């Protein structure tokens, strides 16, 4: 049994009602429910008395250190079998880390700990690392984003990594680490016996100086499948170094996020080689890099390579124009693996989207999710988009936000949604002006097709 509630204010009567339900739940998720430390006392009892409970998610609640102390009393009970604990943005400080350390040391069932968006600080996380080093700790996933960590944390993390072969996922994004600390961390990861599968280092103050060491992790850890170094100024020179590790035969990368990394079209030669030859790679994000049409053309040539197995390509806000749409269309008509294409916030225009639709309508194309928000589109291209919606039954998600489609364009899209051949389940239309009459039509459409979600 699963309890999943979000964004609900908890009255005493409602809370009492839910407590009865929780006694038999395997999963409890109560994000954004205005919970406090007093609710944690009740939850501690649930943890203690419900041995089937394996996941507890309490993100975005004002639990505080006192609330965590209550929770940990239940977590330390022999009857507890909890595996996943989510406490993101719960107003925790370093004071919570001593209590959580006790849980890590004593509770072998706990395999996931998510404590990001809390002011734990370097001192607090050092205490958590002590808990990780206990032989009883079997932690597999540790999320420490936005925890106010500094370079001083790396020595403790490396010591924990050395003693924790079970660890598979480590997220340190949005902490002020810097190149020196990241180099030290990477050397520790290369030496550690853990089979790390996910490493997230977004917005960590990384430059090209760190990329050779990250590359060494990629070439030495064949287990690493998910790497995110977005929002770091690695530049084209850093990307070239990363690609040395990415192209290594040992590297089995599947998901690579390089958004806002100061890349230009000069990086696209290396990226194209990666996309066309690294058959494990299924997702790449290049959002907010100045690739321009010339760079996109190189990427599309790679997509046409039979060896490419890429399923998701994110090129939002990459300086693209109508000029690249013909080659994108050609790639779409050739590549049968691509499922998700994000091209929003580029000046494609109606003419560009008309060209894209030629590729989308090709029998080989299997796009499921298409994002074209803020692409200078008008009602003029909506008839062709409507044809794609009714023809391509694989298409289930379409984003047309921030485009001046007006009543005429929205009506054409609505007509397509009403068609029984249309399988679009989610239509995203943020910040588009339409009349009250069209608004009524949209609401009526949702009523007649409850499987369709229109987000505006």
From TrEMBL:
Gene3D superfamilies: Ribonuclease Inhibitor (3.80.10.10). InterPro entries: Leu-rich_rpt (IPR001611), LRR_dom_sf (IPR032675), LRR_RI_cap (IPR041302), NLR (IPR051261). Keywords: Cytoplasm, Leucine-rich repeat, Repeat. GO terms for cellular component: cytoplasm. It is found in: Cytoplasm. Its main location: cytoplasm. Ribonuclease inhibitor which inhibits RNASE1, RNASE2 and angiogenin (ANG). May play a role in redox homeostasis. Required to inhibit the cytotoxic tRNA ribonuclease activity of ANG in the cytoplasm in absence of stress. Relocates to the nucleus in response to stress, relieving inhibition of ANG in the cytoplasm, and inhibiting the angiogenic activity of ANG in the nucleus. Forms high-affinity heterodimers with RNASE1, ANG and RNASE2. This is Ribonuclease inhibitor. The lineage of its organism: Eukaryota, Metazoa, Chordata, Craniata, Vertebrata.
């Amino acid at each position: 049994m699963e309890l999943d509630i979000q964004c609900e204010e908890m009255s005493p009567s409602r809370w009492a009602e839910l407590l009865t339900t929780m006694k038999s739940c395997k999963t409890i998720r109560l994000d954004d429910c205005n919970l406090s430390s007093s609710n944690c006392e009740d939850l501690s009892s649930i943890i203690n008395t419900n041995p089937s409970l394996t996941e507890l998610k309490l993100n975005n609640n004002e639990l505080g250190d006192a609330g965590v102390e209550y929770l940990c009393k239940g977590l330390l009970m022999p009857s507890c079998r909890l595996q996943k604990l989510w406490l993101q943005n719960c107003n925790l400080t370093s004071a919570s880390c001593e209590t959580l350390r006790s849980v890590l040391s004593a509770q072998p069932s706990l395999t996931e700990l998510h404590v990001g968006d809390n002011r734990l600080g370097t001192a607090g996380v050092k205490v958590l690392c002590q808990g990780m080093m206990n032989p009883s700790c079997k932690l597999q996933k540790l999320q420490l984003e936005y925890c106010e960590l500094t370079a001083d944390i790396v020595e403790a993390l490396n010591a924990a990594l050395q003693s924790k072969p079970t660890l598979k996922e480590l997220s340190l994004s949005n902490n002020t680490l810097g190149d020196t600390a990241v180099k030290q961390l990477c050397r520790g990861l290369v030496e550690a016996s853990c089979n790390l599968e996910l490493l997230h280092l977004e917005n960590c103050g990384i430059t090209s100086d760190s990329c050779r060491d990250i590359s060494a992790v990629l070439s030495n850890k064949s287990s690493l499948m998910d790497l995110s170094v977005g929002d770091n100024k690695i530049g084209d020179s850093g990307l070239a170094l990363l690609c040395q590790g990415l192209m290594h035969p040992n590297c089995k990368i599947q998901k690579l996020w390089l958004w806002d990394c100061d890349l230009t079209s000069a990086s696209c030669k290396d990226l194209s080689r990666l996309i066309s030859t690294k058959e494990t790679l299924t997702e790449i994000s290049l959002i907010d890099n100045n690739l321009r049409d010339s760079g996109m053309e190189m990427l599309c040539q790679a997509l046409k390579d039979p060896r490419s197995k890429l399923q998701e390509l994110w090129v939002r806000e990459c300086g693209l124009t109508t000029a690249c749409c013909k080659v994108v269309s050609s790639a779409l008509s050739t590549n049968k693996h691509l499922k998700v294409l994000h091209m929003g916030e580029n000046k494609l225009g109606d003419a560009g989207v008309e060209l894209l639709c030629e590729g989308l309508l090709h029998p080989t194309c299997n796009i499921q999710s298409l994002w074209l928000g803020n692409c200078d589109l008008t009602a003029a291209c909506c008839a062709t988009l409507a044809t794609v919606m009714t023809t391509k039954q694989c298409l289930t998600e379409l984003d047309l936000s921030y485009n001046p489609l007006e009543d005429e364009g929205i009506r054409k899209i609505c007509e397509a949604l009403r068609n029984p051949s249309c399988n679009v389940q989610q239509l995203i239309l943020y910040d588009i002006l339409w009349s009250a009459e069209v608004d009524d039509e949209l609401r009526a459409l949702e009523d007649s097709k409850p499987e369709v979600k229109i987000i505006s």
